[in-house]
Amino acid sequence: MPGLLKMSQIRALSLWMLMVVLQLVLVPSQLAGCLLNPCLEVIPNKTFSCMGLNVSGVPAEIPHTTQNLDLSFNNLQSLGSNYFSSVPELQLLDLTRCHLHTIEDNSFKDLQKLSTLILTANSLQYLGTAAFNGLTSLKKLVLVETNIASLTDLPIGHLHTLQELNLGHNNIASLKLPKYFTNLTSLRHLSFLSNKITYISKGDLDALKEVNRLNLTLELSLNNIKHIQPGSFAKIHLGELGLRASFGNFSVMHTSLQGLTGLQVNRLIAGEFSDSEKLVDFQRGLLSGLCQVQMQEFILVCVRGFEDDTDTLFNCLGNVSSIRLVNLQLEKMSEVPMFSQVKQLECKKCKFQEVPATKLSLFKELRVLRITKNKNLSSFRQKFESLRNLEVVDLSENHLSFYSCCSPLFPGCPNLKYLNLSYNSIIRITGDFTNVKNLLYLDLQHTNLFGPGSYPVFLSLQKLIYLDISHTRTHVKSQCTFCGLNSLRVLKMAGNSFENNQLANNFKNLSHLHTLDISSCKLVQVDKNTFDALSELKELNISNNKLLSFDPVVYKPLQALTALDLSNNQLSVLVDSALGILPDSLVLLDISQNLFECSCTNLNFLKWVKEKQDLLQNRELMICHTPVYVKNMSLSSFDLHSCQLKASTVAFSVIALLAAAVFLFLIYKYYFQLYYSLVLLSGCKHTAERGDTYDAFVIHSSKDQEWVMKELVEPLEGGTPPFQLCLYYRDFLPGVPIVTNIIQEGFLSSRNVIAVISTDFLESKWCSFEFDIAQSWQLVEGKAGIIMIVLGEVNKTLLRQRLGLSRYLRRNTYLEWTNKEISRHIFWRQLTAVLLEGKKWNHEEAKLM
Amino acid sequence: MKTSDLLILVLLYINASTEWPTHTVCKEDNLEVYYKSCDPQQDFAFSIDRCSDIATHTFNIRGAIVLRHNIKELYAKVDLIINGKTVLSYSEALCEPGHSKLIFCGKKKGEHLYYEGPVTLGIKEIPQGDYIISAKLTNEDHVTVACADFTVKNYLDYY
User: Fold this and answer.
1) CATH code of the region B20-154
2) Which of the listed residues A426, A640, A740, B17 has the most CB atoms within 10 Å of its CB?
């Protein structure tokens, strides 16, 4: 027993644990479902999207002010009366895929302002007879994929305001419009797309007869119509009738179209889809039923199997004013009936190999012709003749290559105003535009051109307003490339090139030009007078070139400019004068993707960039290129203060330099005084020994005594620091032989010997004796240095006689005394420096200091 | 007991994640094709009528999806990815304004889209080897309508 108890305890415990774990896991997820996934508030208080949130009613959080509510992909199951009472202001309610099977009476009772109700993809099983009561403003009701099989029971007869009723993808088998359709007087669009309609009988559409419905679009495409009883559409006026992929095969289509007799329609769309299984082949007489139909526009899509020349495509379309043929496997143009009224003809994605101009010339009333996106269309040899009303010819996006554009191709088409030959292969422009000299608009972009650039081919297009020759491999060599285009307002020629990659005087006659696009033209330079004539120019795009500078002189004439694109060039800065010439009218300026230099030398420009944030486009692409440390930084985030800081550093360093210079100068000037005081401060206070009584013993001729007294003794002994000199006339002891004095007082007591060399010195025997002793003394003791002072001009011959002295002078540095101030200065510095060497300082001298 | 707790946790985790399962389109000796929806909102159904046909320029497919967005315009972008690198890119307009050449063009949110018919590749033939074909359909608002990564192991012989 105890063991069993224990087992059950364990089981209970683990069950409890499981519960806890489950709660832990599930509760947050439930919470998440409620809290983390509320309806998305697209427009505050007005538009909410609760798509796919698994709600089962109008969520409580939706305010009563809501106008648009998307409840699609939820699980509402059924709607009861006053279901939407909490949101009475609703204008749009989307209930797509809400698993609705039941809509009870008065479900939408409170939605008097609702204009759009979408019930797509709910397989409705019960729809109350008063289900849509109260929808007094409803304009659009979408019942696509709602399992509706019959119109009879559809409770919509009271929706007078209804404009669009979409019943696509249902199981409706009969087009018999119930009586209540006469009430739907506002109906503009009625779609039975992809239903099960097989027979249309007389009287089915009677409800449409009674009211004037010129603008009703009736969509019957993707049904499987087997027969239309003639008369079914008699006296019916429609805006548009869609009959694509509605018939099983040729004969059904042929006979059914006969049933359209008496119909009046603005636009009739017939044909197939490229992926529909039952592609109808075109055979003779397919459209013969349309002879009895009055229509403005006929569109035929995705039909194949045309037999060359023998088809009767246009037979019953003679009175139609506009024909569009899209995706037809039409290789040759069909026969054109006499007296055709066709004014507009479009062949898009057909299979022509040659422009069928001869046949098209039979459409005498033709005003607009478009043959586009024909992959095989390469040849244009036939002529459009005598189409006096022809105004627009669009032959773009084919593979045309021809060599005689353009006059010979349009004889007798004097009103041609618009010619589009863009996106073709190769066209040679001969310059002959005589037949089409009233052209206003000529588009040749993305077609390789021969002619423009080399010759003045546009001479006769005096009225042309718009010319696009972008990406046409045009190389502008001739200065007169655009001569004759005196009315031109727009010139687009991006992606071409100019001689020497330079704009010269190419636009001189284009004085009415408003827009000029010369982007991606490899331009390196723009000449001074290029834009002189363009005083009316409003937009200039010169982006994606290689311009290095924005020269104000060049752009100054452009005073009407409102938009200027200079992006993706190699500009480093807009200088002050360039910023000055930008006209006040300028509202868009793009200078992004240039190689800007973000240094303080361009401070004005960088300031200007910050000020003109509204004017400048693509600011995020305006980045610094140099210097390296700011590379890829946004121009507008460049710190202007860093420049001011730099100015102060510059000032600071200048001041510091000046101070240092002054300091050095002072040191230079007071070097010896400073040195002396330094020595004194360092506490070097040895008593001078014998032998160092004098700083120098002066050997000189008695005749130079005056000079020695004045120029040597006075400055040295009286200056700072003071030196003690040994002079024979002053310091020699009386009563002692001269030689002893010379040795004892002179050499032994002095640290240095100063020899004052002059002509007298050389002549004096005592002097030469003293000098000889000095020399030997220097040799023996290695002590006293001989400082030679050469006084002025010394007799060279005498010097040569005194060989020893002459050699000594050659081998040693000596001081020279001259009258020049600067030399004297150097003399004194050198002398003082030598004397200071090895000088020992004593107390008295220190005190003297 | 602890293992069962873990199992519950793992199951719940899988349930909560937005990964869609991988579906098999073809599994033959020399050809395997799998796909997985990369649209977090939904999975879709896809099949190829005859797998061996993918060696040809055009082959028939069937695909079904419930639209979460309108497709007044529809653009397809297909990338061929080998070793994580996009080698080829191909795009085509399936539905253009003013010209709905395919039946489903113009369908609205919530409608059921079913396509059965030929697909013509932008390239001559699909290459041999192991690679991923990433396909994405976007609408006029550049919103993803459907998105799938196809894993292809193709060792078919070409003649």
Assistant:
1) 2.60.40.770
2) A426
